[in-house]
Amino acid sequence: MINDLTKGAPVKLMLLFSIPLLIGNIFQQFYNIADIIIVGRTLGMKALASVGAVSPLFFLIMFIIVGLTGGFSVITGQRFGAKDYDGVRRSVTMSTILSFLFTAIFTVFCALFMNQLLFLMNVPKEIYHDAFWYTEIVVLGLFVANFYNLLANIIRALGDSMTPLYCLMAASVLNILLALLFILEFHWGVPGSAFALVLSQAVSGILCVLYVKKHFPILHLKKSDWIFDWKSDYTFALEHLKVGIPMAVQFAILGLSILIIQSVCNSFGSEVIAAFTAALRIEQIATLPMISFGVALASFVAQNFGAGHFSRIRYGVKRASLINVGLSIFMAFVMHFWGGYLVGIFVGHENVRVIKIAHDYLFRSSLFYFFLAQIFIYRNALQGLGRAIIPMFAAVGELVMRSFAAVFLAVRIGYFGVFYAGPIAWVAASLVLAVGYYSTIKGFIYKTQMKLRKSKS
Protein backbone atom coordinates (compact mmCIF):
# COMPACT_ATOMS: atom_id res chain seq x y z
CA MET A 1 0.00 0.00 0.00
CA ILE A 2 1.25 3.47 -0.93
CA ASN A 3 2.18 5.50 2.14
CA ASP A 4 2.75 9.26 2.38
CA LEU A 5 5.75 9.72 4.71
CA THR A 6 5.48 13.52 4.71
CA LYS A 7 2.66 13.42 7.28
CA GLY A 8 2.44 11.90 10.76
CA ALA A 9 4.92 11.11 13.56
CA PRO A 10 8.34 10.47 11.94
CA VAL A 11 9.53 7.77 14.38
CA LYS A 12 6.25 5.84 14.18
CA LEU A 13 6.26 6.03 10.38
CA MET A 14 9.85 4.81 10.13
CA LEU A 15 9.30 2.01 12.62
CA LEU A 16 6.22 0.76 10.78
CA PHE A 17 8.10 1.04 7.49
CA SER A 18 11.25 -0.67 8.78
CA ILE A 19 9.60 -3.74 10.33
CA PRO A 20 8.57 -5.25 6.96
CA LEU A 21 12.00 -4.25 5.63
CA LEU A 22 13.67 -6.13 8.48
CA ILE A 23 11.57 -9.25 7.92
CA GLY A 24 12.19 -8.95 4.18
CA ASN A 25 15.94 -8.59 4.68
CA ILE A 26 15.94 -11.67 6.90
CA PHE A 27 14.19 -13.65 4.21
CA GLN A 28 16.57 -12.27 1.61
CA GLN A 29 19.46 -13.58 3.69
CA PHE A 30 17.86 -17.00 3.35
CA TYR A 31 19.12 -16.96 -0.23
CA ASN A 32 22.67 -17.05 1.11
CA ILE A 33 22.01 -18.83 4.40
CA ALA A 34 20.34 -21.70 2.57
CA ASP A 35 23.44 -21.96 0.37
CA ILE A 36 25.76 -22.06 3.37
CA ILE A 37 23.79 -24.54 5.48
CA ILE A 38 22.77 -26.86 2.63
CA VAL A 39 26.15 -26.76 0.87
CA GLY A 40 28.13 -27.00 4.13
CA ARG A 41 26.07 -29.81 5.62
CA THR A 42 25.53 -31.90 2.47
CA LEU A 43 28.62 -31.28 0.32
CA GLY A 44 31.29 -30.61 2.97
CA MET A 45 33.74 -27.90 3.98
CA LYS A 46 35.46 -27.67 0.58
CA ALA A 47 32.16 -26.99 -1.13
CA LEU A 48 31.34 -24.39 1.53
CA ALA A 49 34.76 -22.79 0.99
CA SER A 50 34.13 -22.64 -2.78
CA VAL A 51 30.99 -20.59 -2.17
CA GLY A 52 32.63 -18.48 0.53
CA ALA A 53 35.75 -17.77 -1.52
CA VAL A 54 33.71 -16.00 -4.21
CA SER A 55 30.98 -14.55 -1.99
CA PRO A 56 32.59 -11.08 -1.95
CA LEU A 57 32.53 -11.08 -5.77
CA PHE A 58 28.85 -11.99 -5.63
CA PHE A 59 28.26 -9.20 -3.11
CA LEU A 60 30.23 -6.75 -5.27
CA ILE A 61 27.99 -7.52 -8.24
CA MET A 62 24.81 -7.29 -6.18
CA PHE A 63 25.98 -4.10 -4.43
CA ILE A 64 26.34 -2.37 -7.80
CA ILE A 65 22.81 -3.37 -8.84
CA VAL A 66 21.31 -2.40 -5.48
CA GLY A 67 23.18 0.93 -5.50
CA LEU A 68 22.16 1.79 -9.04
CA THR A 69 18.48 0.90 -8.67
CA GLY A 70 18.37 2.44 -5.19
CA GLY A 71 19.78 5.69 -6.53
CA PHE A 72 17.24 5.84 -9.35
CA SER A 73 14.37 5.23 -6.91
CA VAL A 74 15.45 8.28 -4.86
CA ILE A 75 14.24 10.43 -7.77
CA THR A 76 11.00 8.43 -7.85
CA GLY A 77 10.47 9.05 -4.13
CA GLN A 78 11.21 12.76 -4.47
CA ARG A 79 8.69 13.06 -7.31
CA PHE A 80 6.11 11.25 -5.21
CA GLY A 81 6.76 13.53 -2.22
CA ALA A 82 6.24 16.53 -4.53
CA LYS A 83 2.91 14.98 -5.73
CA ASP A 84 4.24 14.86 -9.31
CA TYR A 85 2.62 11.57 -10.38
CA ASP A 86 3.48 11.95 -14.07
CA GLY A 87 7.07 12.40 -12.93
CA VAL A 88 6.78 9.19 -10.88
CA ARG A 89 5.84 7.16 -13.97
CA ARG A 90 8.54 8.80 -16.10
CA SER A 91 11.08 8.07 -13.37
CA VAL A 92 10.06 4.41 -13.39
CA THR A 93 10.56 4.05 -17.14
CA MET A 94 13.82 6.00 -17.09
CA SER A 95 15.11 3.85 -14.23
CA THR A 96 14.16 0.68 -16.09
CA ILE A 97 15.94 1.70 -19.29
CA LEU A 98 19.10 2.87 -17.56
CA SER A 99 19.41 -0.01 -15.10
CA PHE A 100 18.95 -2.71 -17.73
CA LEU A 101 21.48 -1.01 -20.00
CA PHE A 102 24.10 -0.98 -17.24
CA THR A 103 23.26 -4.57 -16.26
CA ALA A 104 23.82 -5.78 -19.84
CA ILE A 105 27.26 -4.17 -19.97
CA PHE A 106 28.21 -5.50 -16.54
CA THR A 107 27.01 -9.05 -17.29
CA VAL A 108 29.06 -9.30 -20.49
CA PHE A 109 32.18 -7.97 -18.75
CA CYS A 110 31.96 -10.35 -15.78
CA ALA A 111 31.16 -13.39 -17.93
CA LEU A 112 34.12 -12.76 -20.24
CA PHE A 113 36.69 -12.09 -17.51
CA MET A 114 35.53 -14.52 -14.81
CA ASN A 115 38.76 -16.57 -14.85
CA GLN A 116 40.88 -13.47 -14.44
CA LEU A 117 38.72 -12.23 -11.56
CA LEU A 118 38.98 -15.52 -9.68
CA PHE A 119 42.73 -15.60 -10.27
CA LEU A 120 43.07 -12.14 -8.72
CA MET A 121 41.08 -13.39 -5.72
CA ASN A 122 43.60 -16.19 -5.00
CA VAL A 123 40.90 -18.87 -5.14
CA PRO A 124 42.62 -22.19 -4.22
CA LYS A 125 42.87 -24.80 -7.00
CA GLU A 126 41.02 -27.49 -5.05
CA ILE A 127 37.83 -25.39 -4.93
CA TYR A 128 38.27 -23.45 -8.19
CA HIS A 129 35.85 -25.48 -10.36
CA ASP A 130 32.84 -25.08 -8.04
CA ALA A 131 33.68 -21.46 -7.32
CA PHE A 132 33.83 -20.65 -11.04
CA TRP A 133 30.48 -22.19 -11.94
CA TYR A 134 28.70 -20.80 -8.91
CA THR A 135 29.75 -17.25 -9.82
CA GLU A 136 29.21 -17.70 -13.58
CA ILE A 137 25.60 -18.83 -13.09
CA VAL A 138 24.87 -15.94 -10.72
CA VAL A 139 26.38 -13.46 -13.19
CA LEU A 140 24.29 -14.79 -16.07
CA GLY A 141 21.24 -14.28 -13.87
CA LEU A 142 21.98 -10.61 -13.17
CA PHE A 143 19.02 -9.41 -15.24
CA VAL A 144 16.76 -11.32 -12.87
CA ALA A 145 18.39 -9.73 -9.82
CA ASN A 146 18.12 -6.29 -11.40
CA PHE A 147 14.46 -6.92 -12.27
CA TYR A 148 13.50 -7.61 -8.66
CA ASN A 149 15.68 -4.96 -7.00
CA LEU A 150 14.44 -2.22 -9.31
CA LEU A 151 10.80 -3.07 -8.65
CA ALA A 152 11.34 -3.41 -4.91
CA ASN A 153 13.13 -0.05 -4.65
CA ILE A 154 10.44 1.73 -6.67
CA ILE A 155 7.69 0.29 -4.50
CA ARG A 156 9.55 1.28 -1.31
CA ALA A 157 10.04 4.79 -2.70
CA LEU A 158 6.25 5.10 -2.67
CA GLY A 159 6.17 4.21 1.02
CA ASP A 160 5.22 0.53 0.67
CA SER A 161 7.58 -1.89 2.38
CA MET A 162 5.08 -4.75 2.67
CA THR A 163 4.80 -5.80 -0.97
CA PRO A 164 8.53 -6.58 -1.43
CA LEU A 165 8.31 -8.52 1.84
CA TYR A 166 5.55 -10.82 0.58
CA CYS A 167 7.45 -11.48 -2.63
CA LEU A 168 10.68 -12.22 -0.76
CA MET A 169 8.98 -14.60 1.66
CA ALA A 170 7.63 -16.70 -1.18
CA ALA A 171 10.92 -16.61 -3.08
CA SER A 172 13.00 -17.50 -0.01
CA VAL A 173 10.97 -20.62 0.70
CA LEU A 174 11.23 -21.55 -2.97
CA ASN A 175 15.02 -21.02 -2.88
CA ILE A 176 15.43 -23.50 -0.05
CA LEU A 177 13.23 -26.10 -1.74
CA LEU A 178 15.00 -25.73 -5.09
CA ALA A 179 18.45 -25.88 -3.46
CA LEU A 180 17.53 -29.13 -1.73
CA LEU A 181 16.06 -30.50 -4.96
CA PHE A 182 19.01 -29.58 -7.17
CA ILE A 183 21.69 -30.69 -4.69
CA LEU A 184 20.17 -33.77 -3.04
CA GLU A 185 17.98 -35.17 -5.84
CA PHE A 186 19.58 -33.92 -9.07
CA HIS A 187 23.15 -34.05 -7.64
CA TRP A 188 24.15 -30.77 -9.31
CA GLY A 189 26.45 -29.84 -6.42
CA VAL A 190 27.44 -26.21 -5.84
CA PRO A 191 26.09 -25.02 -9.25
CA GLY A 192 22.67 -26.32 -8.19
CA SER A 193 22.68 -23.83 -5.33
CA ALA A 194 23.34 -21.00 -7.81
CA PHE A 195 20.51 -22.14 -10.07
CA ALA A 196 18.15 -22.16 -7.09
CA LEU A 197 19.19 -18.60 -6.21
CA VAL A 198 18.56 -17.23 -9.72
CA LEU A 199 15.21 -18.98 -10.19
CA SER A 200 13.89 -17.83 -6.81
CA GLN A 201 14.88 -14.23 -7.61
CA ALA A 202 12.97 -14.50 -10.88
CA VAL A 203 9.87 -15.58 -9.00
CA SER A 204 10.14 -12.64 -6.56
CA GLY A 205 10.31 -10.22 -9.51
CA ILE A 206 7.30 -11.76 -11.24
CA LEU A 207 5.27 -11.60 -8.02
CA CYS A 208 6.12 -7.89 -7.68
CA VAL A 209 4.88 -7.21 -11.21
CA LEU A 210 1.60 -9.05 -10.63
CA TYR A 211 0.97 -7.19 -7.37
CA VAL A 212 1.79 -3.79 -8.86
CA LYS A 213 -0.51 -4.46 -11.80
CA LYS A 214 -3.40 -5.15 -9.46
CA HIS A 215 -2.87 -2.70 -6.59
CA PHE A 216 -0.75 0.25 -7.84
CA PRO A 217 -2.64 2.36 -10.38
CA ILE A 218 0.00 5.09 -10.04
CA LEU A 219 2.53 2.69 -11.59
CA HIS A 220 0.35 1.64 -14.52
CA LEU A 221 2.62 2.87 -17.30
CA LYS A 222 1.36 4.33 -20.56
CA LYS A 223 2.91 3.95 -23.99
CA SER A 224 3.86 7.63 -23.90
CA ASP A 225 5.88 7.04 -20.71
CA TRP A 226 8.31 4.89 -22.70
CA ILE A 227 8.96 7.46 -25.44
CA PHE A 228 12.42 8.95 -24.98
CA ASP A 229 12.75 12.53 -26.21
CA TRP A 230 16.41 13.58 -26.20
CA LYS A 231 15.55 17.25 -25.80
CA SER A 232 13.34 16.89 -22.73
CA ASP A 233 14.49 13.58 -21.25
CA TYR A 234 18.26 14.04 -21.50
CA THR A 235 18.26 16.25 -18.40
CA PHE A 236 15.90 13.85 -16.62
CA ALA A 237 18.25 10.95 -17.39
CA LEU A 238 21.18 12.93 -16.01
CA GLU A 239 19.18 13.62 -12.85
CA HIS A 240 18.86 9.87 -12.28
CA LEU A 241 22.47 9.17 -13.18
CA LYS A 242 23.77 11.87 -10.82
CA VAL A 243 22.31 9.87 -7.93
CA GLY A 244 22.41 6.34 -9.33
CA ILE A 245 26.02 6.23 -10.54
CA PRO A 246 27.61 7.61 -7.34
CA MET A 247 25.51 5.15 -5.31
CA ALA A 248 26.54 2.28 -7.60
CA VAL A 249 30.19 3.38 -7.37
CA GLN A 250 29.84 3.69 -3.61
CA PHE A 251 28.46 0.18 -3.25
CA ALA A 252 31.01 -1.12 -5.75
CA ILE A 253 33.82 0.36 -3.66
CA LEU A 254 32.40 -1.29 -0.55
CA GLY A 255 32.11 -4.58 -2.39
CA LEU A 256 35.65 -4.19 -3.75
CA SER A 257 37.01 -3.62 -0.26
CA ILE A 258 35.38 -6.84 0.93
CA LEU A 259 36.75 -8.55 -2.18
CA ILE A 260 40.29 -7.48 -1.25
CA ILE A 261 39.83 -8.74 2.29
CA GLN A 262 38.55 -12.08 0.98
CA SER A 263 41.53 -12.33 -1.37
CA VAL A 264 43.86 -11.94 1.62
CA CYS A 265 41.75 -14.38 3.62
CA ASN A 266 41.86 -16.97 0.81
CA SER A 267 45.63 -17.23 1.25
CA PHE A 268 45.14 -18.76 4.73
CA GLY A 269 43.41 -21.96 3.55
CA SER A 270 39.97 -23.59 3.48
CA GLU A 271 39.32 -23.54 7.26
CA VAL A 272 39.84 -19.79 7.54
CA ILE A 273 37.76 -19.23 4.40
CA ALA A 274 34.90 -21.32 5.80
CA ALA A 275 35.10 -19.54 9.18
CA PHE A 276 35.16 -16.09 7.59
CA THR A 277 32.23 -17.03 5.33
CA ALA A 278 30.07 -18.21 8.23
CA ALA A 279 31.02 -15.21 10.40
CA LEU A 280 30.13 -12.70 7.67
CA ARG A 281 26.73 -14.34 7.16
CA ILE A 282 25.99 -14.08 10.87
CA GLU A 283 27.20 -10.47 10.96
CA GLN A 284 24.94 -9.64 8.03
CA ILE A 285 21.97 -10.99 9.98
CA ALA A 286 23.02 -9.17 13.16
CA THR A 287 23.18 -5.82 11.38
CA LEU A 288 19.88 -6.26 9.51
CA PRO A 289 17.82 -4.22 12.03
CA MET A 290 20.24 -1.29 11.63
CA ILE A 291 20.27 -1.65 7.84
CA SER A 292 16.47 -1.83 7.68
CA PHE A 293 16.03 1.31 9.74
CA GLY A 294 18.53 3.07 7.51
CA VAL A 295 16.61 2.09 4.36
CA ALA A 296 13.36 3.27 5.95
CA LEU A 297 15.07 6.58 6.71
CA ALA A 298 16.12 6.94 3.04
CA SER A 299 12.50 6.71 1.86
CA PHE A 300 11.38 9.08 4.62
CA VAL A 301 14.05 11.64 3.69
CA ALA A 302 13.42 11.38 -0.06
CA GLN A 303 9.68 12.03 0.23
CA ASN A 304 10.14 14.89 2.70
CA PHE A 305 12.87 16.37 0.52
CA GLY A 306 10.40 16.46 -2.37
CA ALA A 307 7.89 18.19 -0.07
CA GLY A 308 10.53 20.65 1.22
CA HIS A 309 10.19 19.56 4.88
CA PHE A 310 13.83 19.93 5.96
CA SER A 311 13.23 20.46 9.70
CA ARG A 312 11.17 17.27 9.69
CA ILE A 313 14.09 15.46 8.03
CA ARG A 314 16.52 16.66 10.70
CA TYR A 315 14.19 15.52 13.48
CA GLY A 316 13.73 12.09 11.87
CA VAL A 317 17.46 11.54 11.39
CA LYS A 318 18.24 12.36 15.04
CA ARG A 319 15.65 9.88 16.30
CA ALA A 320 16.79 7.22 13.85
CA SER A 321 20.39 7.67 14.98
CA LEU A 322 19.45 7.08 18.63
CA ILE A 323 17.48 3.95 17.76
CA ASN A 324 20.40 2.52 15.78
CA VAL A 325 22.74 3.16 18.73
CA GLY A 326 20.50 0.98 20.89
CA LEU A 327 20.36 -1.73 18.23
CA SER A 328 24.15 -1.75 17.84
CA ILE A 329 24.67 -2.27 21.59
CA PHE A 330 22.15 -5.11 21.70
CA MET A 331 23.62 -6.90 18.67
CA ALA A 332 27.15 -6.57 20.04
CA PHE A 333 25.95 -8.26 23.24
CA VAL A 334 24.44 -11.14 21.22
CA MET A 335 27.62 -11.63 19.19
CA HIS A 336 29.80 -11.69 22.30
CA PHE A 337 27.86 -14.43 24.10
CA TRP A 338 26.20 -16.49 21.36
CA GLY A 339 28.35 -15.90 18.27
CA GLY A 340 30.14 -19.25 18.53
CA TYR A 341 26.90 -21.20 18.85
CA LEU A 342 25.46 -19.45 15.80
CA VAL A 343 28.55 -20.31 13.76
CA GLY A 344 28.09 -23.97 14.73
CA ILE A 345 24.63 -23.95 13.15
CA PHE A 346 26.23 -23.09 9.81
CA VAL A 347 29.28 -25.34 9.80
CA GLY A 348 28.40 -28.07 12.30
CA HIS A 349 29.42 -27.98 15.97
CA GLU A 350 32.08 -30.64 15.41
CA ASN A 351 34.25 -28.17 13.44
CA VAL A 352 35.79 -26.66 16.57
CA ARG A 353 38.65 -24.77 14.91
CA VAL A 354 36.37 -23.15 12.30
CA ILE A 355 33.95 -22.08 15.06
CA LYS A 356 36.77 -20.58 17.15
CA ILE A 357 38.15 -18.54 14.23
CA ALA A 358 34.70 -17.25 13.29
CA HIS A 359 33.81 -16.36 16.88
CA ASP A 360 37.09 -14.48 17.29
CA TYR A 361 36.11 -12.34 14.31
CA LEU A 362 32.58 -11.68 15.62
CA PHE A 363 33.89 -10.82 19.10
CA ARG A 364 36.26 -8.16 17.74
CA SER A 365 34.08 -6.62 15.03
CA SER A 366 31.00 -6.28 17.24
CA LEU A 367 32.87 -3.83 19.49
CA PHE A 368 32.62 -1.35 16.61
CA TYR A 369 28.94 -1.85 15.65
CA PHE A 370 28.19 1.65 17.01
CA PHE A 371 30.12 3.22 14.13
CA LEU A 372 28.58 0.85 11.58
CA ALA A 373 25.11 1.79 12.84
CA GLN A 374 25.78 5.48 12.21
CA ILE A 375 27.04 4.73 8.70
CA PHE A 376 23.62 3.26 7.86
CA ILE A 377 21.89 6.39 9.18
CA TYR A 378 23.94 9.17 7.61
CA ARG A 379 24.59 7.36 4.32
CA ASN A 380 20.88 6.77 3.74
CA ALA A 381 19.95 10.28 4.85
CA LEU A 382 22.37 11.77 2.31
CA GLN A 383 21.10 9.46 -0.41
CA GLY A 384 17.51 10.46 0.33
CA LEU A 385 18.60 14.09 -0.07
CA GLY A 386 20.04 13.19 -3.46
CA ARG A 387 23.59 13.89 -2.26
CA ALA A 388 25.27 10.62 -3.24
CA ILE A 389 28.72 12.14 -3.80
CA ILE A 390 29.54 12.40 -0.08
CA PRO A 391 28.76 8.70 0.61
CA MET A 392 30.85 7.83 -2.44
CA PHE A 393 33.89 9.67 -1.03
CA ALA A 394 33.28 7.99 2.33
CA ALA A 395 33.28 4.64 0.54
CA VAL A 396 36.61 5.50 -1.10
CA GLY A 397 38.06 6.20 2.34
CA GLU A 398 36.59 2.93 3.59
CA LEU A 399 38.22 1.06 0.69
CA VAL A 400 41.63 2.58 1.44
CA MET A 401 41.38 1.83 5.16
CA ARG A 402 40.11 -1.74 4.66
CA SER A 403 42.74 -2.58 2.07
CA PHE A 404 45.61 -1.09 4.05
CA ALA A 405 44.53 -2.76 7.28
CA ALA A 406 43.91 -6.16 5.67
CA VAL A 407 47.21 -6.31 3.82
CA PHE A 408 49.41 -4.55 6.39
CA LEU A 409 48.07 -6.30 9.49
CA ALA A 410 47.73 -9.72 7.85
CA VAL A 411 51.47 -9.76 7.15
CA ARG A 412 52.24 -9.06 10.81
CA ILE A 413 49.61 -10.92 12.82
CA GLY A 414 48.13 -13.40 10.32
CA TYR A 415 44.40 -13.76 9.63
CA PHE A 416 43.62 -11.83 12.82
CA GLY A 417 44.74 -8.75 10.93
CA VAL A 418 41.89 -9.25 8.46
CA PHE A 419 39.42 -9.09 11.37
CA TYR A 420 40.33 -5.47 12.15
CA ALA A 421 40.03 -4.16 8.59
CA GLY A 422 36.27 -3.64 8.75
CA PRO A 423 36.12 -1.89 12.14
CA ILE A 424 38.92 0.53 11.21
CA ALA A 425 37.07 1.44 8.02
CA TRP A 426 33.74 1.87 9.88
CA VAL A 427 35.23 4.46 12.22
CA ALA A 428 36.66 6.52 9.36
CA ALA A 429 33.55 6.34 7.13
CA SER A 430 31.08 7.18 9.92
CA LEU A 431 32.95 10.40 10.75
CA VAL A 432 33.01 11.52 7.10
CA LEU A 433 29.30 10.77 6.62
CA ALA A 434 28.25 12.51 9.86
CA VAL A 435 30.10 15.71 8.93
CA GLY A 436 28.72 15.54 5.39
CA TYR A 437 25.12 15.09 6.53
CA TYR A 438 25.07 17.88 9.14
CA SER A 439 26.68 20.40 6.79
CA THR A 440 24.23 19.46 4.03
CA ILE A 441 21.04 19.66 6.10
CA LYS A 442 22.13 22.96 7.66
CA GLY A 443 22.60 24.34 4.17
CA PHE A 444 19.09 23.29 3.10
CA ILE A 445 17.47 24.73 6.24
CA TYR A 446 19.36 28.01 5.82
CA LYS A 447 18.18 28.35 2.21
CA THR A 448 14.59 27.63 3.26
CA GLN A 449 14.74 30.29 5.98
CA MET A 450 16.15 32.85 3.51
CA LYS A 451 13.29 32.15 1.09
CA LEU A 452 10.72 32.64 3.87
CA ARG A 453 12.29 35.94 4.90
CA LYS A 454 12.28 37.18 1.31
CA SER A 455 8.65 36.19 0.80
CA LYS A 456 7.60 38.02 4.00
CA SER A 457 9.53 41.13 3.09
Structure, explained:
This protein has 457 residues and is mainly alpha-helical. The chain has one domain (11-456). Helix content is 86%, strand content 0%. It is built from 17 helices and no strands. Helix 2 (45-81) runs antiparallel to helix 9 (230-266), helix 12 runs antiparallel to helix 13 (352-365) and helix 12 runs antiparallel to helix 17. The two termini are 42 Å apart. The mean pLDDT is 83.
Q: Compute the gyration radius: what is it?
A: 22 Å
Number of strands: 0
Beta-strand content estimate? under 5%
**How many individual helices?**
17
Helix content: over 70%
Describe the secondary structure blueprint for this structure.
Blueprint: H1 10-43, H2 45-81, H3 85-112, H4 114-120, H5 128-140, H6 142-157, H7 162-185, H8 190-215, H9 230-266, H10 270-286, H11 288-307, H12 310-347, H13 352-365, H14 369-384, H15 389-413, H16 416-419, H17 421-456
